[in-house]
Amino acid sequence: MAERPARPVLHAGYFDAGLTEVDPELAAALGGELRRLQDQIELIASENLVSRASLEAMGSVIVNKTVEGYPGRRYYGGAEFADAVERLAIERAKSLFGAAHVNVQPHSGSQANLAVFAAFLEPGDRIVSMDLSMGGHLSHGSPVNISGRWMQAHHYGVDPDTGRIDLDAVADLVRRVRPKLVICGGSAYPRAIDFAAFRDVADQVGAVLLADIAHFAGLVVAGLHPDPLPHAHVTTTTTYKNLRGVRGGVILTGDPELGRRIDSAVFPGVQGSVILNAVAAKAVCFGEAARPEFAAWAASVLANARAMARVLAERGFDVVSGGTDTPIVLVDLRSVGISGRDAQTLLEGAGFTVNKNTVPGDTRPPWVASGIRLGSSAGTTRGFGEDEFVWIADRIADVLEAQTERVVDETRQAVSELCARFPIYPGRRF
Q1: Residue 322 sits in which domain range?
Q2: Nearest Cα to 43, choosing from 430, 396, 403, 369?
Q3: How much is the pLDDT for 230?
Q4: Reduced to 3 states, what is the DSSP secondary structure of residue 339?
Q5: 300-324 CB burial, b ≥16 within 10 A, e <16
Q6: Cβ burial, residue 168 (10 Å; 0-12/13-18/19+)
Q7: Is there a domain that residue 65 lies in?
Q8: Is 51:42 a contact under the CB 8 Å cutoff?
Q9: What pTM does this model have?
Q10: Together in a domain, 130 and 253
Q11: Which has the higher per-residue pLDDT, 158 or 5?
């Protein structure tokens, strides 16, 4: 009789030991990140702080389940609760944005945009979008991205005097190029977007209009920024940044017929199984954004960004477009004589996390850049109000004007004291 194979043995504590016990090296890195968040001021516009409920959803048992397809039409069995999770996320997003159809499966905003390309374009088709160096996004046709490698991308920018989109110039470009897709929205454009005007431009050549609202979706929900849904054929957003959720993408449309094309483009078009723990956390995010407190938070985000822009302008810094209608403040540092890369390093030493960013007319490469991009979302989530953001802008100005070790060190101490007054994730180890 053949000998039975030995029963597999899991390592001790597989189902009940914590990360610190099982993997202290990784736990130490995560603990370091927690301390960084607690002791620095986060000003990167694409970052935020999620709720404890979102953290719990991301670490929930739904992470074990694999499904492909859509609720009620899965390729795998055992999907009852997976369907419940995804339906919750869909219905909450539809209600929140007033959308007829929502796809919550994209793993990121870039994959959401790629799915829109797959739904409406063929390789080699022409698109029109904002130039990355002027405030657009990598996934909108940058030559280093698959969107720019597969499509013929033509870009518009901003008026060099105002820093704002010139819609007449956009219309001229669209009529000349006759694209199949027009994209509005970006990653470093601080002003409100006229979606109705963009739709008029797209309609002139029969193009699909895609609105990417990743950086100000929370303001749209709160009624503080123009709403793209009545105008754009398709809208994409991320759930982090200004929606205050975990990382992931969402596609919305007011047209159910287009929704069917979008669903097929997401699965099986550009991705396979669903990251269900992320979808569960998206459901948390949409539920939180429907609460009345969210609108007050969004109003503070906008007020805080404007306070920061105003103070920096008063201190003599070149704030691109003269201000902001979003959580983003873009600062051109060429008049200060410091690159974006050097400013980023200097400010991080002082306790401010920012990112270098190209500015309109930039002659430096993007990995050096001539500007910095600041965001108010994460600080507002932490509890900072206008007084704190005025203080932050003044301290940033002090550091960039002085560029001395003494001012950096003094500012770092003051930042630590401010952060201690606004604790985050109290009692957590990582």
Answers
A1: 293-421
A2: 396
A3: 97
A4: coil
A5: bbbbbbbbbbbbbbeeebbbbbeeb
A6: exposed
A7: yes
A8: no
A9: 0.95
A10: yes
A11: 158
